[in-house]
Design goal:
The structure is a single chain. This protein is α/β, with parallel strands linked by helices and 194 residues long. It has a single domain, classed as Glucose-6-phosphate isomerase like protein, domain 1 (Rossmann fold, 3-Layer(aba) Sandwich), CATH 3.40.50. 34% of the residues lie in helices and 15% in strands. It has six helices and seven strands. Strands 4-3-5-6-7 form a five-stranded parallel β-sheet. Strands 1-2 form a two-stranded antiparallel ribbon. β1 (33-36) and β2 form a beta hairpin. α2 packs across α5 and α3 runs parallel beside α5 (162-179). The longest helix is centred in the last third of the chain and has 18 residues, at 162-179.
Length: 194
């Protein structure tokens, strides 16, 4: 894919560090890894990142916002996840995942959804497991060290950095609303702020 076709300039992706992986590399993430640097860090393929964000936005756009649930235990993603919820209307849970909210209808905070968007499949693994049990589609932001069991759609990215997470959630919100024919007036900087 040519750079001019990206959702944002390649320079924006680079500056956010969206492509910087970890020193651990799993076989699940091999298709999304461009190379391994001499210092051992994996570099994610920006073409794949952009393509997968597009696919995720398209998949999300087929659902009403109140049927989308976002889970983010990783503190670096809280602001971006909450802003995604604010602009799209999706339900967002930051911090510790409330056990059983997808599987136990007797709970006061029982929540039903059709698609689950998780920031990192490792700390959010209980939500992924419960989401799968309740029949939700799972979209996950995955770094080079993630396993992708139960994940229907992978968004390869640096899922640990604030800038990277902010950029991914900004693009998902913008593209989701565009595909739904709705206005989006947020600034990218709001999602990426410290």
């Amino acid at each position: 894919m040519a750079e001019e076709e990206f959702l944002v300039d390649n320079e924006v992706y680079m500056k956010a560090g969206i492509h910087i992986g970890t020193k651990t590399r799993t076989k699940y993430m091999d298709p999304y890894i461009y190379k391994t640097r001499p210092d051992g860090l994996s570099v994610l393929n920006v073409n794949e990142i952009d393509a997968q964000i597009r696919k995720a936005a398209e998949k999300l756009s087929k659902h009403e916002a109140d049927r989308i649930i976002v889970i983010c235990r990783r503190e670096n993603g809280w602001r971006a996840a909450k802003l995604f919820g604010k602009y799209t209307g999706a339900k967002v849970f930051t911090g510790r995942y409330p056990p059983g909210i997808f599987t136990n209808p007797k709970l006061e905070n029982f929540t039903e959804g059709e698609v689950l968007l998780v920031t990192d499949v490792w700390p959010d693994r209980n939500a992924v497991k419960d989401g799968r049990s309740s029949g939700m589609d799972i979209i996950a932001l995955c770094d080079s060290n993630n396993e992708t069991h139960y994940v229907d759609l992978v968004i390869p990215c640096n899922n640990k950095g604030k800038q990277s997470l902010g950029l991914v959630y900004f693009l998902l919100a913008r593209e989701y609303l565009k595909l739904r024919g709705q206005e989006f007036d947020a600034k990218m900087e709001d999602f990426m702020a410290d």
